């Protein structure tokens, strides 16, 4: 009797374990920021998009495919040509995410790696169309306009594949080796031209200064000649007296010079010589 009871309990426990295993295998979780698409072996991809939470599915018959619908960054490098036939290397940083309601269509047409299939091709297409409208110099001076045109064109093309682009920015913009060397040579030439212009302006200023100085000397000579004509030798004597006064003033400040007035006796205390 006890043995039968234990057998019955064991069978019940085994049955519950089997049921629990089947139930667990028929559950799947959709985390926050994700959505699920159900693939049915008999009906194909269902149009229903499953939201966040825990859900049931039929094992072996159905299979959930999980998509991340949060914004993700991707850098897309492209080599294209400008209007003046210069090679341009551009890298775009794109924040993208799928439209949740279009996930069944995206999975059916593009697959789980839809970003690898779509973003490089449409980015290259739009960049080549936009960059071809500008010269190499305009790509630098009008970068904001270029970025706006690229953003508008890329957003429109991505919408055709069920993608939303939250942000598009040009992170890298360089030109070919020949254009870079030409720009450097142009900068050197401009610097040399500025230096030459400065030297010319300096020479002009020195010339003007020399002319003004010569005119001043000539005017001074005319004034002196006129003064000599009016005052005769008196002006020369005045200048001699002024010069003598200046010399006497300078000598009076020197410690090694002693002034002996004429007609006066001065006693000097000189050391005796042996």
Automatic annotation (TrEMBL):
Domain Band residue range list: 26-187
Location(s) in or outside the cell: Mitochondrion inner membrane
Main location class: mitochondrion
Pfam families linked: Band_7
Superkingdom of origin organism: Eukaryota
GO CC term (a single one): mitochondrial inner membrane
Record-level GO BP terms: mitochondrion organization
Keyword Metal-binding assigned: no
Family matches, as SUPFAM superfamilies: Band 7/SPFH domain
Alphabetical keyword list: Membrane, Mitochondrion, Mitochondrion inner membrane
Protein family membership: Belongs to the prohibitin family.
PANTHER family with a match to the protein in the record: PROHIBITIN, PROHIBITIN 1
The protein's name in its UniProt record: Prohibitin
The species this protein was found in: Euphydryas editha
């Amino acid at each position: 009797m006890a043995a039968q009871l234990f057998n019955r309990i064991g069978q019940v426990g085994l049955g519950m374990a089997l049921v629990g295993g089947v139930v667990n295998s028929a559950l799947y979780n959709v985390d926050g920021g994700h959505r699920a698409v159900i693939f049915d072996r008999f009906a194909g991809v269902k149009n229903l998009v499953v939201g966040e939470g825990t859900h049931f599915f039929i094992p072996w018959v159905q299979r959930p495919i999980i998509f991340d619908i949060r914004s993700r960054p991707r850098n897309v490098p492209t080599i294209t040509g400008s209007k003046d036939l210069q090679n341009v290397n551009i890298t775009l940083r794109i924040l993208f995410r799928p439209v949740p309601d279009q996930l069944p269509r995206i999975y059916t047409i593009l697959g789980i790696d839809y970003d690898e299939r779509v973003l490089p091709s449409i980015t290259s297409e739009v960049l080549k169309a936009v960059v071809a409208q500008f010269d190499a110099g305009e790509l630098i001076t009008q970068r904001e306009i270029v970025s706006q045109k690229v953003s508008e064109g890329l957003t429109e093309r991505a919408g055709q594949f069920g993608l939303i682009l939250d942000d598009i920015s040009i992170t890298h913009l360089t030109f070919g080796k020949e254009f870079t060397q030409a720009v450097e040579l142009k900068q050197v030439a401009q610097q040399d031209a500025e230096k030459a212009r400065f030297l010319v302006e300096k020479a002009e200023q020195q010339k003007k200064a020399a002319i003004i100085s010569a005119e001043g000397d000539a005017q001074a000579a005319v004034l002196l000649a006129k003064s000599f004509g009016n005052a005769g030798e008196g002006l020369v004597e005045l200048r001699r007296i002024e010069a003598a006064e200046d010399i006497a003033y300078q000598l009076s400040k020197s410690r090694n010079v002693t002034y002996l007035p004429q007609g006066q006796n001065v006693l000097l205390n000189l050391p005796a010589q042996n």
